[in-house]
Amino acid sequence: MTRYFIELAYNGKKYHGWQIQPNALTVQQVLNECMSTILRQEINIVGCGRTDTGVHASYYVAHFESEDGEIDEKYFCTKINKILPKDIAVYSLTKVDALTHSRFSAIGRTYQYHVLTQKNPFLQEFAYQSHVPLDFEAMNEAAATLLHYTDFTSFSKMHTDVKTNNCKVTYAQWELVNDKWIFTIKADRFLRNMVRAIVGTLLMVGRGKITVQQFLQIIEAKDRGQAGTSAPAHALYLVDVSYPKNLFVKGECFLNGNSQ
Questions:
Q1: Which of 4, 135, 186, 205 is least surrounded by CB atoms within 10 angstroms?
Q2: What is the pLDDT of residue 224?
Q3: Percent of the chain, pLDDT > 90?
Q4: Is 118 exposed, middle or buried (0-12, 13-18, 19+ CB in 10 A)?
């Protein structure tokens, strides 16, 4: 069996997240079905992580194993994109070592959350519109403090199966890009619902409902009940996943240069 990585993107609007679930349409399910058809064998694809219902991925990585050790990248990408629905696209195919894992070999992930401060009919479905003014200076001051903590229990979905709620955040900042404010956060790993819970709490800071000091107290409380409501899923994007270069059979970088 030969292991391959694929790079892809998807619009999560109609999907119940990445991971297969009973009685719900997911990205993983659709890919398994389409890839099994193209490769004429049963494919069980493994993703770099979960995404919640309605969350998008402008960059996502997954791996699968095939009996065919020489799948042609151009042929594969052309064929798979012809039968995939319009809201999922595969960009590349890369052969990797048998021990390389799309989830466990990753060394970093980056998410972005998009916020509108004025109505825009062309962005409404893919960004959150705030109907009140936001203090982004205070929100950035609060966001910067995330780099000084490792336990993010206050921003984690409760009763998950993870062994630790520790994460190393290396970047967290709001920036104005054209008509949108974009929050970018990078970490070695993320807990379930973590980014949306952080954004929802930062929005409370921006609205003046809590201070930066109270934001710190929420983190230190290690209690999900202290944090704000999770921000809506439709404005959240997974935008990057990074891996060590030495994992790749040919030593080549991925399409988006996400090897380090």
A1: 135
A2: 94
A3: 85
A4: exposed
Q: Where in the chain is the domain with CATH 3.30.70.660?
A: 109-238
- CA distances (Å), origin 174, targets 3, 134, 232: 38, 11, 17
State residue 33 phi and psi, 5-degree precision: -65, -45
CB 76 within 8 Å of CB 89:
no
Among the listed residues 63, 65, 61, the one whose alpha carbon sits nearest the alpha carbon of residue 91 = 61
87 catalytically annotated: no
**Which residue positions in the chain have pLDDT lower than 70?**
159-161, 246-260
Query: From the candidates 52, 135, 151, 240, which is the catalytic residue?
Result: 52
Whose tokens are 């910067």? That residue is 144
CATH architecture of 2-105: 2-Layer Sandwich (3.30)
**Cα–Cα distance, 237 to 196 (Å, whole number):** 10
Task: Name residue, tokens 């780099």.
Answer: 147
Q: Which CATH number is 109-238's, of 3.30.70.660, 2.60.40.1260, 1.20.1530.20, 3.90.1150.10?
A: 3.30.70.660
Per the confidence metrics, is the pTM higher than 0.85?
yes
Q: Count how many Cα atoms sit within 13 Å of the Cα of residue 132 in the half-sphere of its side chain.
A: 8
CB 62 within 8 A of CB 238: no
| Digit-coded pLDDT (tens) for 3-53 | 999 999 999 999 999 999 999 999 999 999 999 999 999 999 999 999 999
